Predict the structure.
Amino acid sequence: MRAISERIWNFFPFRLTIIPFILVLACAFFNFHSLTNWDGDWYRHLVTFGYSAVHAADPNMEGKGNVGFFPGYPILAWLLKKILGFGTDLFPTDAALLLVSNGFAILTWFYIGKWLELFNAANVRFRMLLLAFYPYTFFFNVTYTESLFTAMMMGFLYFSEKMVREEDSGKAWLYFGIAFAHGFWMDLTKILGIVMVVYPLIRSFQLKRHPIKSLLVATSGALSPLFFFLYCKEKFGAWDFYFQTEKLIWGVYIDISKLFPPKTLFDFSRPLHADTVSKYVTILTGALLTWKLLRLLLKRQFQDPALAAVLVCGMMWGSNMLGRTSLDYGGMGRYMVPVIAMMLPFLKLEPKRNWKWALFCATLIGFQIAFALKFGRHGWVA
């Protein structure tokens, strides 16, 4: 038994997920249900009752117009609830949601580690630790879709990369199948994943290999939203009912007037507020992607996998920006987690034992502790 426990502890992704999980446990100290705040209320209702079309002006009205959430996460929680409840509804819904989130949190760290190894990145553990310290990583361990989406995204990227590199046709088809499954569930969890399907197309073009497989695997990200939209058409009479719900309940839509110029993005009147910190992160991430892209283009490194990663991350960054214009760009911190995870192998990170790195890491984990505790007290953090 001791040998098994030691093997589990020595599994580095497991140790990484312990960091935000401890913060989540601190939230649970105040109230177990604090781990299921905000979006968790909507997912609980989805698992229990399914989709409903009744709109309400108050977004806190549980279960009213819950079509603003994709079904990937609640489907898995519903299945787990049924399995652990032996076909009944006795197993708590919140516990099922948390088990799914935390299970996929471990898988997320595993895939991030494999992604870094795939590109022979130096200081793998240090890179992963920086992401673990990131202020919004605790969302992996609460009833949000962050861990499931990031796990499926990293799995899709990893197996897509393995596919386009593979010279053996049989193995390439195997990687294709695994990547396809990840891509399908990725976009069944969040529509933002649809930009990720461009990655295998770019890599196939760069390597001049497996164009048909790359095109087919790219369709995985389009199929699941298509099925969901067809479901909305059948049940609610409008294929775009998801977008209607997003706009009516949360006011999420593309507001062109706030895009040029994006004045509200640079509103730092509350410098330490969670939304303001998320703006800092968003701006810095955008600047980093721009700098990396220009550097690759100026050096004419057109075959570099970093170019494919930067282009796809830039598309996801831009999609997030567009979707949050109506909300003054608030709540983008957690949406940067997948972008940073994908870019980790291509960043120049050389850890040094000095006060600058110590201060930087302490600042990151300090914000995460503050935000996790605020979330646990039902404060808004995103």
About this structure: The mean pLDDT is 83. Residues 264-347 form one domain. Residues 68 and 244 are 8 Å apart (CA to CA).
